[in-house]
Amino acid sequence: METTVIPFRGLRYEATKVGGLANVIAPPYDVIKPEERGALEARHPANIIRLILSQRHNDDTDDANQYTRAATLMNQWIADGTLVQDATPRYYIYDQSFSAPDGKNYTRRALIGLVKLQPFENRVVLPHEKTHAGPKIDRLNLMRECHANLSPIFLLYADPTGDIEQIMESFTDINPPEIDCAETFRSTHQLWCLDDAERNNAIQNLFSSKPLLIADGHHRYETALAFRDEMARTGLSGYGYMMVNLVRMESPGLAVLAIHRLLDNLSSNQIAHAITKLPEVFEVHDIDTQANLMAKLDTLKGKSAAVGMYTADNNYRLLIPHSIIPDQLDVTLVQETLIKEMFQVETLADHISYTAYADDAVAHVKGKTDRVALLMNPTPVERVLEVAMAGSIMPQKSTYFYPKMATGFVLNLLNR
């Protein structure tokens, strides 16, 4: 099957109406904490938070609720010129510059376009994680009212020779960005409108043979598929594409972090059982400090499976399996062997949470005798693609592409 990635007429904020884009952008809806939501709403009356995370009211009904309010606001902003649709189809180039927790500076370049929706079995758009029903119902209800992609999902594509990025560079090297946003949400943001038919045709052709890997946005992709099918049953067309951020997986601007596992509500017997069983599967090395443990893990990155463990008695351990199962990922080893077998955790949702920061993981456990932190190396992005291409699924929270991309620079109206 052919991959179809096309330019489109984006719906964008009129900067002069909102006093600058920094006032109206937001992080993705699923990482915004309740206290952050209030601060974003206070930042500007037209902040995108009011669309992507509209709040319930006690007197909500089937006809008047958080989803209908979001749609009413969006249409109001279109009517009064707060949001304006571009006159001609184009791609958008989005640069996000940031400092990662490893101390390195990155600039990640994304191409924003529309991808033709295809079921996963067509092997064009590839998932790598399981999804859950709740978030899909929420996003479907929002899409039913707004008939829009309010934020792009994040896809990766392989391009060893960098042909697509070279086309983008040939444009951005000679044209200033239309949006140059100072640091907001730990990143600076620049956006170019690639309104150039020749370059756009070349980009579209280059994508035609490339499978696309979902890095972030599995729930929204499945929601868009469901909404497309729902609208097709009503006889309406124009719902066969969705807005995406496309990033080259070989790009030096792609920062992939580990996601550490935090185990909670463990009994003393579960912890004692796991510690007793460790030598049967792992070489167990006692390490004196967190810094030294993380340094040891880093030296093993890409060479050997390895896991760090921190317990409330202030004990750091480096775990290296005695034998390696070919192609087994560290996250699979941790979930299936450590968490399920050794810690005897049957229902993950009752005992596990996640963080990308080792300091937070250790602080979460320190002094709490029912908690354990499992510290990870990041999953190499090429391994994620291999798993997806093989039709397999990884454990939840296997990858963290840092940082999250901001929402609000470009929206996509469906069927218009």
How would you describe this structure in keywords?
single chain, 416 residues, alpha+beta, six-stranded antiparallel beta sheet, 13 helices
The rounded distance between the terminal residues' Cα atoms is 26 Å
List low-pLDDT spans: none
The chain-level mean pLDDT equals: 93
Rg estimate, integer Å: 23 Å
Quick one: how many beta strands? Answer: 21
- Tell me, what's the shape? globular
Instruction: Give helix % range.
Output: 25-40%
Descriptive notes:
- The structure is a single chain.
- The chain is an alpha+beta fold and 416 residues long.
- It contains 13 helices and 21 strands.
- The protein has helices spanning 15-18, 34-43, 49-52, 66-79, 133-146, 163-172, 197-207, 218-233, 268-281, 290-300, 330-342, 358-365, 381-389; strands spanning 5-6, 11-13, 83-85, 91-99, 105-116, 125-126, 148-149, 153-157, 179-184, 187-194, 212-216, 241-248, 255-257, 260-263, 282-287, 307-311, 315-321, 352-355, 372-375, 400-402, 412-413.
- Strands 1, 4, 5, 6, 8, 9, 10, 11 and 12 form a nine-stranded mixed sheet that branches.
- β9 (179-184) and β10 form a beta hairpin.
- The mean pLDDT is 93.
